[in-house]
Amino acid sequence: MAVRVGVDVGGTFTDLVALREDGAIEVRKVVTTPDDPAVGMFRALDALDGGRPRPPIDLLVHGTTIATNALLERTGARVVLVTTHGFEDLLWLRRQDRADLYDLAGDHPAPLVARRCVVGVAERMGPGGALESLTDAEVARVVAAVRELEPQAVAVAFLFAFRYPEHERRIAAALRAAAPGVPVAASHEVLPLFREFERTSTTVAEAYLRPKVSAYLSRLDRDVHARGVPALRIMTSAGGTLDPAAAAGRAASLALSGPAGGVVGARLVGAAVGFTELLALDMGGTSADASLVTGGAAVTDGGGAAPGEGSIAGIPIALPSILIESVSAGGGSIARVDDGGALKVGPDSAGAIPGPACYGRGGTRPTVTDACLVLGWFDASSPLADAVRLDPAAAEGAVAALGPVVGGAGGAAGIAGGIVAVATAVMARALKRVSVARGLDPRRMALLVFGGAGPLFGCALADALGIGSIVIPPHPGVLSALGLAAAAERVDVLASFHRPLGQLDAREIGRAYTSILMEAARQAPGAACLRFADCRFAGQGYELTVPVTEDDPREIADAFRAAHRTRYGHTGSGQPIEIVNLRVVALREGPLPQFAAAKRSARAPVGRRAITLSGERLTAGVWSLDDLAPGVTLDGPAVAAGRDATGLIEPGWRGTAHPSGALVLQRR
Fold first, then answer.
1. Same domain, 101 and 176
2. Among 323, 325, 326, 347, which residue's Cα sits nearest to residue 336?
3. Does any domain span residue 416?
4. For 137-287, where are the E strands, in sequence order?
5. Which of 457, 454, 500, 504 is nearest to 479 (CA)?
């Protein structure tokens, strides 16, 4: 029986889920190895063997932070940018928006390329074609200038190359011929859409990341095959997978690789329990990621549909990605007091090494995990992963050390309560940004909480947003890895197409999609192809992506007006509509996990434990989260302790075990 494996390398733990052909699920969790994430992955694979022969793995799907970390830590390649003469300062001019509206001294992160490493080219395309021809002598001069700068990668982004890529092609070909070992990213290949700043920034990010990502994936692919696994695929920010060679050439599309797997898993669990409208929160060790599932599908940001959107580590990357709002409120986020005396959580994280103080690995600063342990939410006698046991005394000491600064009211438990309250507020704001800010009422949705710490905060977050239903999925601590194992193969093909919708007929719309449908079929033979269009009212500076099921322009207009009403509250009062971009998504779906396959029989709590909630000392029943029999109910206060995560049911809530293994909470 063949097995599909998903491996999610997080900031603190590396999670593995094996999805067997019959849908059965097997889980492993080990500590992440920050110096080389592949080491943790192979340790997780070794743990899957457990000393016993296992069925052959026919596919391994990997969610990687290699691109994200390179952007955060600025450890990518030395890039030279080749651009149209006169536009050398584009990345510094940006869009003239402020990094922080109320901080007069605040500034955006510096571009990924040094100003001295920008080469201007005497050429110019306009909206109607060439305004200044690119000569052979200029090509030779540019190649020499680039080689003199000794780049590790080159980005090429010319004016209007999304429509007329001829000049970019010539320069890119010459650079590749002159320096075969230096990657060259051309904007018409990376992002053939209008908006000069976002296209250039995305192309530079691609060049910046490609050498590091390519080397990592090449080595990983070789090592995976050496272990007898025939196929490796990499999760992209859009929630689909690519083979390593394709992923290496689309390095910037991996910037949200890991979190995207969690949203795929959330969608699958929502379908299993009957919720198609979900707010999802993945609370891991380093961060918390808020996302949205509506109509049973993950909401995808088209990539730069509105200027200023789609930034990662402050760098605009206008590629398709699942809508994810990340905040520094993970279990390892460090609590501190700012200069004004206010208690803050994050952005610094204890990470995997040394980790929270309670891990006993040398950490001394208080984290959200330490606060939860002080409040009694965790069982100190149960290992988290790799036999990591929790040290209550170390947690209490770290939390209590904040006492002299914050006043110390209520002792360590009072300070710990303040830490979790701040973390809850930070996560609630992220959930509002992906729902309320998009015109959606969270009270009409269910909240799905996962990650190692997410289920502890479900009730508090639901109370903050007025949500009446909470879903704790089966295997909540490794749901991202489960989403990876079940993820579809996906290819996105984009094209600029700026035309008034009212001047198009069905035949013209169908013809416009022909070339990108052919390209999608070439890249993903046999996959189902879905069509989308980026539309806006004439004169708007932003657009919305809507599905195109028919070539009828009236149906496209109706779909756009409905989406615009949801997002912005109006339908434009008869304003004309424009199509600006066309998109085709080629999908080949993965297998569906059989959540109900496991036998679960627990019908009574395994014990009771004192916990602290809102400053009040309570006695909570302790249940085995992974073994709850279908139909069993849990009244709060209760703790549902699993092998990969722990859930907290607060007073006023009742949980019911679903046949899928999920725990569904409702207000009593």
1. yes
2. 347
3. no
4. 153-157, 184-186, 232-235, 241-242, 278-283
5. 454
Total number of domains constituting the chain: 3
> Distance between CA 667 and CA 653 in Å, rounded?
5
* Separation of alpha carbons 460 and 454, rounded Å: 11
Q: How many angstroms separate the CA atoms of 139 and 607, rounded? A: 75
84 and 188 fall within a common domain: yes
24 within some domain: yes
- Residue 133: CB atoms within 10 A of its CB come to 11
> Does 84 lie in the same domain as 65?
no
The backbone torsions φ and ψ at residue 636, rounded to the nearest 5 degrees and listed phi first, read -75, 150
| Contact present, 38 and 244 (Cβ < 8 Å) | no
| Residues linked to residue 83 through DSSP beta bridges, in sequence order | 120, 157
N-to-C CA span, the chain: 44
* Gap between the Cα atoms of 157 and 152, Å rounded: 17
34 and 104 part of one domain: no
The helix (run of H) or strand (run of E) holding residue 132 is strand 129-132
Residue 101 and residue 209 in one domain: yes
Question: What would the pLDDT profile of 373-431 be if each residue is shown by its tens digit?
Answer: 999 999 887 766 666 778 899 999 999 988 766 655 568 899 999 999 999 999 999 99
Is there a single domain that holds both residue 135 and residue 32?
no
Query: What residues does 488 pair with on adjacent strands?
Result: none
Q: Are 643 and 478 contacting, i.e. CB atoms less than 8 angstroms apart?
A: no
Interior CA angle at 626 toward 620 and 627, to 5°? Answer: 85
Total Cβ atoms within 10 A of residue 134: 20
pTM > 0.85: yes or no: yes
Q: What is the DSSP string of 67-86?
A: HHHHHHHT-S--EEEEEETT
Give the residue numbers spanning the domain of 131. 78-213
pLDDT digits (tens, 9 = 90+) for 22-81: 767 888 888 777 778 888 888 888 877 665 566 788 999 999 888 988 898 899 999 999
Domain CATH number, residue 199: 3.40.50
Residue 400: how many CA atoms within 13 Å on its side-chain side?
A: 10
